[in-house]
Design a protein that fits this description.
The chain has 288 residues and is α/β, with parallel strands linked by helices. The chain has one domain: TIM Barrel (Alpha-Beta Barrel), CATH 3.20.20.70. 47% of the residues lie in helices and 12% in strands. It has an 8-stranded parallel beta barrel with strand order 1-2-3-4-5-6-7-8, surrounded by 5 helices. β1, α1 and β2 form a beta-alpha-beta unit. α2 runs parallel beside α3, α3 packs parallel to α4 and α4 packs parallel to α6. The radius of gyration is 18 Å and the shape is globular. It holds the Pfam family DHDPS. It catalyses: L-aspartate 4-semialdehyde + pyruvate = (2S,4S)-4-hydroxy-2,3,4,5-tetrahydrodipicolinate + H2O + H(+). Keywords: Amino-acid biosynthesis, Cytoplasm, Diaminopimelate biosynthesis, Lyase, Lysine biosynthesis, Schiff base. Its EC number is 4.3.3.7.
Length: 288
């Protein structure tokens, strides 16, 4: 499965009452597709999946699939810390027409590597969709190590990993020891270019919401051998990449989108809006 180079981990737009706003979601999808996104990840961390109900997730996946209408791949975030719940949501995503699923490392439970292997293998065995693993130890506490990822890559429909460990040695080991058709994506915007340099395929990005064309240009230049210009774009994007994670995500990126006139509403508790000071700092950076 070719998911593309730049996938956007899409925010979930809410209305003034904190409910999913599907009209705003349609507008956001069209904006993202016009601005460099080659695939969309819906219902992931940036989409505030922990505070969406199962029914909301299904409705959001279905709406995104219908709106995209096969123009780019739609990957549904169906992972959780419950294997059975993940299987059930995965089945619904498949019925909705998603092109793939993304499975986060189970959080809070703190399983060992054998538990991680069995968790992902069990979900993959219940679907015909291609599976992207998502390793984000900063949120899940547990790291999906390279040996387990490599072992999981032998399962036919586990085809990719979104790596947000920040461990380039681990990521290089995965790239070296998996088949060429197993794709590796950066799960941290600031790590995209370093990961490309060791053989990664692209990024599942947050900054692509507001700098998608620039990020796509960086990847294209690197892949064409223009490393100097790619590095220059990376350096220019780095301050905004870092600012978008200076407060809990997706609060900053939703704020930035609203500042740019792309209405996505606020966030749900336990997340809260930026302070006036934080908003002003973000505004200055975006304008610059």
């Amino acid at each position: 499965m070719d998911f593309g180079n730049i996938l956007t981990a899409m925010v979930t737009p809410f209305d003034a009452n904190g409910q999913i706003d599907f009209d705003k979601t349609t507008e956001l999808i069209e904006y993202l597709l016009d601005n460099g996104s080659e695939g969309l990840v819906v219902g992931g961390t940036t989409g505030e999946s922990p505070v969406l109900t199962k029914d909301e997730k299904i409705a959001l996946i279905s709406h995104t699939v219908k709106t995209v209408n096969n123009r780019v791949p739609v990957i549904a975030g169906t992972g959780s810390n419950s294997t059975q719940a993940s299987i059930e949501l995965t089945n619904e995503a498949e019925k909705s027409g998603a092109d793939g699923i993304m499975l986060v490392v189970p959080y809070y439970n703190k399983p060992n590597q054998e538990g991680l292997y069995r968790h992902f293998a069990a979900i993959a065995s219940e679907t015909g969709l291609p599976v992207m693993l998502y390793n984000v130890p900063g949120r899940s506490v547990v790291n999906l190590n390279s040996e387990t990822t490599i072992k999981l890559s032998k399962i036919n429909n586990i085809v990719s990993v979104k790596e947000a460990s920040g461990n380039l040695d681990q990521i290089a080991d995965i790239i070296e020891r998996t088949d060429d058709d197993f794709s590796v994506y950066s799960g941290e915007d600031s790590m995209t270019l370093p990961m490309l340099s060791i053989g990664a395929d692209g990024a599942v990005s947050v900054v692509s919401h507001i700098a998608g064309l620039e990020l796509k240009e960086m990847v294209t230049k690197f892949q064409s051998g223009d490393v100097t210009d790619a590095a220059s774009i990376h350096r220019k994007l780095l301050p905004i990449m870092n600012r978008l994670f200076a407060q809990p995500s997706p609060v900053p990126i939703k704020t930035a989108l609203n500042m740019k006139g792309i209405d996505v509403g606020s966030v749900r508790l336990p997340l809260v809006s930026l302070t006036d000071f934080e908003r002003e700092n973000l505004r200055r950076l975006i304008e610059s």
